[in-house]
User: What shape does this take?
Amino acid sequence: MFFADSDTPVPHGTLEVGEEPEKQPFARMRVIRRDKWTEKILVEALITAAKLPGESPQLPPVEALFYTWGDFPLIDRDISMNLWKLHYKFDAEYSFSDGYPVGLAPEILSVLIPEKLMPLAVNRDNPVARDSLFEIIRQDINAFDVETQLSPVDLRMDRVSISTDTRRNVNIAEQLFAAGGVDAESLCRVIPDNRLLLRNLPAFFPIQITDYCPQACSYCPFPKFSGDPRDGRNYMPLDVFEDLCRRIIDFAGDAVIGLSLWGEPAAHPEIGKLIRAALAAGSRVLIETSGIGWNRTLLEELAGEKETDRIMWIVSLDASDPELYRTLRGEGQVEAEETARHLTKLFGSNCWLQAVRMKENEEHLEEFYKKWNAEGAQVIIQKYDSYASYLPERQPADLSPLQRFPCWHLKRDMPVLIDGSVPVCRDDLGRRDVSGNVFKENIEKVWAAGNELHVKHVSGEFPGPCADCDEYYCFNF
Ligand code: SF4
Ligand code: SF4
Assistant: This one.
């Protein structure tokens, strides 16, 4: 089985579906091509694959589907074999491994399952992700016979991906390989002993493009450290931003560029050009917004452009009750909700409506969820952040892991303020540790300045703001 997009050359020895196998050197691999892959299209392709005939009239049809990715260089023979034995012995419908780095084991599906997945995938027009199959099944997991092979060491929190999809992952995989991590068994030993290697190139660049906000939200540290954001008057010039985006991609290879660090992106007078500049540089773009101040025509134009799949939207709403909204965020709910509906319509699975979970809105979150769910919108509930005790604790519950581990943001995030300065961490609002200034220095050098704190985290020390911070376990990009 080989899934490919329309630009992928068919490898030697593969067959298009329907082609006769007789002249091929091996006939195990068959190709299903699609111009575009979404999760729904993936399930349709699996349905097709499950019905493929055997390789000769004497052989039975396909017995099971092994699903994996072409950019996983270290698919492990032993896990694959054990998983297959488990799958076969218990006549499972879906078998997967858990706790290993991504990329070491296939997922195995019974040929009976793809048809059953279609009702769960029918509205999933989002692009295929590494965990798409699991996420589709998870919607109704009790309806399926599932078998799991667990890793001897739980490495989920390290989120290592042994893949060749990004410069970052290639570097990490090669360094782990050089340290002796050549298969699943050795990687389970090598990764815990070499966590220093897991900080490689940054992946997420939240950038402050303006210091203006139309709201001064009650749970946001921005008003506290910089005064009323409704008085902000500064904007990052377009040419400065363009140059920064180019340098980011040159350095990191790929990136998610966020346009919402301490400011409302809609307020930037050239926001459309900024979004297009980040896309043109080759990045994905994350826009977190209050939903206030957007030009409808611009949103419609962006939704119609070729790169629209690389724009992600989060609209911060926090409450559906007008009184509560006003308490948390101030004025503007009607406009914010209209924008939320408009963005949902235009950007579909790339748009989320967010509520930060706090003591104040805890009881209202179900109502919030139901309201937007009924309108077909995607809802995310975000953890409250006290910014290392800079703000009062307002979390209704402490969900942090029992055992602390190195911070995800320290490994992956590089925040850039409007003057080009880079705090080691966005949560360090006292800015005790500034890594440098990307308008004056080389990005690589500025990023490397964060290694020192990472070394401390790996050795179990959490100094300064980190001591009071529980954001370390929250994953973004
Ligand atoms: S809109 Fe965002 S950045 Fe602005 S005050 Fe509210 S939470 Fe803070
Ligand atoms: S632990 Fe908190 S303060 Fe420390 S680097 Fe991570 S997010 Fe920043």
Remarks:
- The chain has two domains: 36-198, 204-473.
- Residues 213, 215-217, 220, 222-223, 229, 262, 264, 290 surround iron/sulfur cluster (ligand 1) (CB under 6 Å).
- Residues 212 and 231 are 6 Å apart (CA to CA).
